[in-house]
Amino acid sequence: MQIGLVGLQYSGKTTLFNTLTKTDETDSTAQPDKANLAVVKVPDDRLDKATEIFKPPKKVNATIEVYDIPGLRVSEDGKVKITPDFLNNVKNNDALFYVIRQFSNDAVPHPENSIDPLRDILFLETEFLLADMALLETRKERLEKDLQKSKNEQAKKELPLIQKCLTHIEKELPLRLLEFDDSEKKLLSSYQFLTLKPLVVAVNFDEDSADKVDSILEEIKKEFDKYSITLIPFFARFEYELSRMNDEEALAFMEDFGIKESALNKILRISYHVLGLQSFLTVGEDECRAWTIRKNTTAQEAAGVIHTDFYNKFIRAEVVHYDDFLHYGSFQKCKEAGVWRLEGKEYIVKDGDILSIRHS
C-alpha cells in the first residue's frame, strides 16, 4: 500500500517525509525534482510485546510505502500550476496526504506569499476535480462512439457509471463521496481517479501558532466537511527533531511537551484506517511478524498472505486475539479459558488476531 505526500513548495512536506522515514534532510539520495520512495515500518505495540514474550531472533513489522512527491512550484507567470508529471506521480498512490502550511517563516516564503490553509486545500482539491472531470468526459465520449459502432456489452455497463461519476463531479464534489458496489469499483479501479482516493489533510503548525490549532482545524472542518477529509495537526520541525532521538529520549521529550503520540504513529495509524487496513500476528520462538490485510479478510485469504500454499491447502486457523493472549499469558491458558479456538476458511480476521494456519 502506498500513501503519497503532496503539497505546495515549502509546506513542510519533505520534512514530514524525513520524519516518517527517519532519513536526513541532507541525504544525498533524495532528489528534489523526483518522487522519493521509502518503505516505512508500521509501529505496533502488540508486536513489540509479543517479541518480548517469545524472544525470537527476528521481528518483522508490517510496512507501508510513502512517496514524497515534488512540491508544486510557482511558474514564470507567478502562478502555482499543476503539471502532468505531478498528476502522474499522484495517481499511483492508494491514499493522499495534503501537507498544508500554517507556519510563518520569512526565509522560506509561501508560494502565494501568504498563509491561508483554506485556499491551499481548495486549490489542490479543485485541480484534482478538474483532472477527474477531464478524464470522465474523455471516457464518456469514447464509450458513446463505441456504442454507435457496435453493441459493446462492456460499454453498456460502463457508460451509466461514468455518467453517474460525471454528474456528481460537475457539482464540484469529490468521487470519494459516492457509494459504489463491487462491480462498479472493479470498473473504476483502472482509472485511478484522484478524488476517489482517501484523503488526509495534515496541517503543519509551528510553536507560534500552537494556540490556534483548535480554531484553525474547526474552520477547516466547517469549510470542507462535505469533502469527507480526515484532519491531522502536526508540528513538522518538532517531530523531525523528535525522530532523531532514541526511544527513551523521545519519550521524555514528549512528556515535557505534553504530547501523547508522535506524528509518525498518528499518520501511519490513520493511513491504515483510511485505507481500510488492519494487522494480524504470527508469533513464536523463530519469528514474530505483523501482516497487513484489508478489513473483512477471511482466514483463508489471510493464510494466502503468508504463503500461497497456505491458501490452497488451508484446513483450519488456530485463532486467539492478542488482548486475550496478553491477559492469560500463554496459549495453553487461553485454551483452558475458551478464548483459543479453531476457525474455518470463512472466518473474518479481526485486527490483532494471532493466527496459526493448519494446512495439508
Pattern of helices and strands: EHEHEEHEHHHEHEHHHEEHHEHHEE
Task: Specify the overall morphology.
Answer: flat
Question: Approximately what portion of the residues adopt beta-strand conformation?
Answer: 15-25%
Give the CATH superfamily of the largest domain: P-loop containing nucleotide triphosphate hydrolases
State the helix count.
14
The mean pLDDT is 88
Which fold does the CATH topology of the largest domain refer to?
Answer: Rossmann fold
Separation, N- and C-terminal Cα atoms: 30 Å
Got a strand count? 12
Count of spatially separate domains: 3
Contiguous low-pLDDT stretches (5 residues minimum) are 26-30
CATH class of the largest domain: Alpha Beta
How do the helices and strands line up, and which of them pair or pack?
Elements: E1 2-6, H1 13-21, E2 36-41, H2 45-54, E3 59-60, E4 63-68, H3 84-91, E5 95-101, H4 117-149, H5 153-169, H6 182-188, E6 199-204, H7 213-224, E7 230-234, H8 236-243, H9 247-257, H10 263-274, E8 277-282, E9 288-294, H11 299-306, H12 308-312, E10 314-321, H13 322-328, H14 331-337, E11 341-343, E12 353-359
Parallel strand pairs: 1-4, 1-5, 3-9, 5-6, 6-7
Antiparallel strand pairs: 2-4, 8-9, 10-11, 10-12
Helix pairs in contact: 1-8, 4-5
Walkthrough of the structure:
The chain is α/β, with parallel strands linked by helices. The chain folds into 3 domains: 2-43 and 61-113 and 198-274, Rossmann fold, CATH 3.40.50; 130-195, Obg-related GTPase Ych/YyaF, coiled-coil domain (DNA polymerase, domain 1), CATH 1.10.150; 296-359, Beta-grasp domain (Ubiquitin-like (UB roll), Roll). Helices cover 43% and strands 19% of the residues. It is built from 14 helices and 12 strands. The chain has helices spanning 13-21, 45-54, 84-91, 117-149, 153-169, 182-188, 213-224, 236-243, 247-257, 263-274, 299-306, 308-312, 322-328, 331-337, and strands spanning 2-6, 36-41, 59-60, 63-68, 95-101, 199-204, 230-234, 277-282, 288-294, 314-321, 341-343, 353-359. The strands form 3 sheets. A 6-stranded mixed beta sheet has the order 2-4-1-5-6-7, sandwiched between helices. It has a 3-stranded mixed beta sheet with strand order 3-9-8, with helices on both faces. Helix 1 packs parallel to helix 8 and helix 4 (117-149) runs antiparallel to helix 5. It is flat, with a radius of gyration of 23 Å. The two termini are 30 Å apart. Residues 26-30 have low confidence and may be disordered.
